[in-house]
Amino acid sequence: MPHLQFEINKKIENKIKEEFIDKVMSTFSKVMDTGTDHIAISIREYDKYSLSIGRTDIKDDICLMNLDIREGRTIDKRRKLVLLYMDLVDKLFKINKKNQYATLTEHKGEDFHLVEKYLSSWEIGEEPLA
Fold it and tell me: What is the rounded (10 degree) CA torsion for 50, 54, 56, 62?
């Protein structure tokens, strides 16, 4: 159950957040060869001066991504996912790619729990809740 967290230092309209969530989910499913029912997404909005990246100006719009995923994907898949998310944040949230920073953390499937079960290890083309 990936938990895809996006922290930004600006307010975003709900309509844009809906589109963003839909695209984050479909992108993850496509790139990572999995279903969508187990994907969790957080968008956290902070005040302007509450987030920082050393290479940016403190007044810049910022996006920090913390992507908790199951282990097993290649570095190419993980890199592709991050770059697609950076494009999406740039397009929908209007945050420059140089002002984005992503961290991926990999977990065993059994570290992800829903009420009905915990997830197994990742397999290509899977439906984790099936």
Answer: -40
